[in-house]
């Protein structure tokens, strides 16, 4: 089946031109002016539209078992929602329970995802405990048959996923050795656990306790610590969900010193803020509970977009992990029991476009970078993904930059019964989405099939991430000083040996 997209403006991260795009068998086979349609080819008119690489969301948690519940968007409804918003690939996280192993968990996640995904996906792996077996299995899962090239460490969720600093450090040393990117959830989990106990003891049991137990400086502190430790381990680091200015500043500071660090703000943090936690309606407030929390500083969303525009932050994701209202209710009398997580995978592209391009902060090319191509580069999937070019996968979004829509739970495609962006009017949205060379979203309708997406293995030692690591290793190699008294001792010893040898030979 071939498709010819005519009359549109093709946008890549490094240029935009009025060109046609011809797709055959899931691959882009021609890009150029005035292309002719072959026989039996469907022609899609993209006049006044932008033809861009489909979005890549590098941070989702579909059907994650978490805090005694399972996230309601599974790999089917979650990837449907993604496609309706112009995202054609997700990178989800395998999170082994403390008593499980990376390989066991990997098989579980593949078993969940493969029959359900409607778009392509890759996997990242969380490391939630540390021993020799875990280390060996980390090495194993970076082999092509598993296709993992990044590992995430939690400095939060004490008693559940959190690792100690020495485990995180050893984990990063190993990541560096096997060519895998380290990713980090950076918050000071120990202090958060203490603050949460204190707040509950003082009777603060509502969602406002969630944000008060996690002050922004605990995110900034952990981000700074993670950056320092990554530099010491000579390991490239990717900070997931940068939610506050302090965390962003820490990343920017360490990058200014030459550290290899990537910062990922998410749709929620760019599109809304933490005032919701103080809402009088308990359920309304609980819907926004996620970690790190949304910033209580109202100027943060705009500041994060400015940093994306300036290149101080690098790409956008969502941390999509949705729980229904009745699941949020589990924390009615204790905010620490409210399942953490919000939506985003469907609305990320529109929110970033609206807050970035419409606001005059970024151009469409930077939009492509921060929603697609940088993720493809970091996870070693470029230019197969993240680019409109001959030979690339036909994962494409046709973007309508002129019309508006209102984001709402009544029209979204999530399994979740609310939307944190409810009522937000955005100008610019995915009008048509093409996944693996098939039109899967058009005229506000999805045409998807469970299991139509494929697992995309990601290779380690990505040049975009790792090229300077060996040189840094040389610069960081231990140096030893041979001191004078040691040298005297050495000379004396040599003389003695020579004398002995002479004695023996005579
Ligand atoms: Zn996450």
UniProtKB/TrEMBL annotation:
Catalytic activity: 5,6-dihydrouracil + H2O = 3-(carbamoylamino)propanoate + H(+)
Species this protein is from: Diploscapter pachys
Entries under CDD domains matching the protein: D-HYD (cd01314)
GO terms under biological process: pyrimidine nucleobase catabolic process
SUPFAM superfamilies listed in its UniProt record: Composite domain of metallo-dependent hydrolases, Metallo-dependent hydrolases
UniProt cross-references to InterPro entries, sorted A to Z: Amidohydro-rel, Hydantoinase/dihydroPyrase, Metal-dep_hydrolase_composite, Metal_Hydrolase, Metallo-dep_Hydrolases_sf
Name of the featured protein: dihydropyrimidinase
Positions where N6-carboxylysine occurs in the chain: 152
PTM per Swiss-Prot/TrEMBL: Carbamylation allows a single lysine to coordinate two divalent metal cations.
Cofactor: Zn(2+)
Pfam families referenced in this protein's UniProt entry, alphabetically: Amidohydro_1 (PF01979)
GO CC terms: cytosol
Lineage: Eukaryota, Metazoa, Ecdysozoa, Nematoda, Chromadorea
Family in the record: Belongs to the metallo-dependent hydrolases superfamily. Hydantoinase/dihydropyrimidinase family.
EC number: 3.5.2.2
All residue ranges annotated as the Amidohydrolase-related domain in the record: 50-440
Domain of life, per lineage: Eukaryota
Molecular function in Gene Ontology: dihydropyrimidinase activity; metal ion binding
Keywords: Hydrolase, Metal-binding, Zinc
Subunit-structure text: Homotetramer.
